[in-house]
Amino acid sequence: MKRSAITEQEHQRVAEAIRNAEVSTSGEIYCVVAQRSDGYFFSSSLVVILSILVISLGVAFLIETWWLTMRLPVFVGAQLLAIALALLLIYALPDIRVRLAPRRWQYMRAHDNALKQFLARNVHLTAERTGVLIFVSLAERYAEIIADARIAAKVPQEMWDSIVAGLIEDAGNERLTDGFVTAIAAVGALLSEHFPVRVDDINELDDHLVEI
After folding, report:
1. Kindly report the CA angle at 37 between 31 and 38, in degrees rounded to 5?
2. Cα(119)–Cα(121) distance, rounded to whole angstroms?
3. What pLDDT, in 10s, does the model give residues 140-152?
4. Could you give the CA distance from residue 136 to residue 115 in angstroms, rounded to a whole number?
5. Which of 56, 110, 133, 204 meets the CB 3.0–4.6 Å disulfide criterion with 146?
């Protein structure tokens, strides 16, 4: 997914899409896009250290097989130097950390971030419990839709998964704004089906895309 600032025009497109979607529903839609959901220094460091230890073990066996000798202090010093250089590299280059971190860990961190945003942005505090968060974390190529209790009870997870799949595809093809607009429209259609707009309906959440 492309990691770059979203233009003001793109922000306006998303805000307009949210307003249009909420015209026919009492539900509330909130959108958040994160550049990344974790620094991944410690997870990538663990991967690098374990890899160096495994490689050095293989080198030790080769040295033994070839009837060569290496003093233990020299061997350990070479290991420590390799680890230090590798850690320095991943510290200086954040993009490498994401590539080294296990995918499962990336998804866990992105999911945790989505939950934090759902709570921090008060999506769970709408009067009718009809808030929906559309969340994307670019570095992890991760998207998720979190619906509040009343919506989750009526809309099956498969419907959200289908919308998320389209959003991930669009974001992966550098059409992040288009993906959000399409996802917002689809979420709005589902909400209007189960939670049509009321006469006394008020807008409880801001209609814009938040970048973090």
Report:
1. 165
2. 6
3. 999 999 999 899 8
4. 12
5. 133
